[in-house]
Amino acid sequence: MGLFISFEGCEGCGKSTQAKLLAAELEQQGYGTTLTHEPGGTPLGDELRRCLKKVRDSVVTPEAELLLFAAARSQLTLNIILPALEKDRVVICDRYSDSTVAYQGYGRGLPLASIDAVNRIATRGLRPDLIVLLDMDPSRALQRKGWPRDRFEHEDMAFHERIRNGYLELARADPGRWMILDASDSPSATTQVIRERVSPLLSKSTLTRQVSA
Predict the structure, then answer these.
(1) DSSP assignment of 25-70, as one string?
(2) CB neighbours of 43 closer than 8 A, spacing ≥ 6?
(3) In sequence order, which ranges of 77-186 are alpha helices (DSSP H)?
(4) CA 116 to CA 170: how far, in whole Å?
(5) ∠ at Cα 49 (32, 159), nearest 5°?
(6) Which is it for strands 130-135 and 178-182: parallel, antiparallel or unpaired?
(7) Could you identify which of 13, 44, 90, 122 might form a hypothetical disulfide with 73, taking C-beta atoms 3.0 to 4.6 angstroms apart as the criterion?
(8) Predicted local distance difference test score (pLDDT) of residue 174
């Protein structure tokens, strides 16, 4: 099996940037790399992403959010992530199942046990080998992201604070799998720390590098 790395954090913390930088670095080193994101990464997932992020007048229930994210995650896991891992590739995912725990669990208040059960079905029990948490004050992160904002970014600051606290609680409960980084640091400094953490995982894995002739 390959190596599975996910990036987590609040809105505007720089997950997508760091995920892309890591994928580019590993590709340059010769590792087969699959970069993807949640929700999305498949035709169905992309449709659900637009549905979930659209600003609307009607209320989307937390339960509906949970199940829509799970549907997108199931499709992504079975169609993209697991096949890539089986080919000994490095899979880098911008958000994965822990986003649902943070957002629909800590943020919306759904029971964590229920979320765990849904996540297990959607992921078939798959967990990332490393979870990079880019931690940042939510108000500062949203200011940095600017406008326009999607449905989640329109939520009040208390919602985003609950998400941040939830992420930190998850990370502290499993320090061997999680890596907490201060996202207010310079992007280049953050990139270097991530590289240093990922390098030993590459050497310990069964990944094969694609050496050009």
Answers:
(1) HHHHHTB-EEEEESS-SSHHHHHHHHHHH---SSPPPHHHHHHHHH
(2) none
(3) 82-86, 97-100, 112-123, 138-145, 157-173
(4) 13
(5) 110
(6) parallel
(7) 122
(8) 97
Domains and CATH numbers, the chain: 3-204 (3.40.50.300)
What are 49-82's pLDDT values in tens digits?
A: 999 999 988 889 999 999 999 999 999 999 999 9
Q: Which residues are within 8 A (CB) of 139 and not within 5 positions of it... i.e. 6 or more apart?
A: 157, 160
* Distance of alpha carbon 199 from alpha carbon 183, whole angstroms: 20
pTM: 0.94
User: Which residue did the predictor score with more confidence, 149 or 130?
Assistant: 130
pLDDT band of 36, cuts 50, 70, 90: very high
- R_g of the chain computed on alpha carbons: 17
* Tokens 């310990």, located at residue: 204
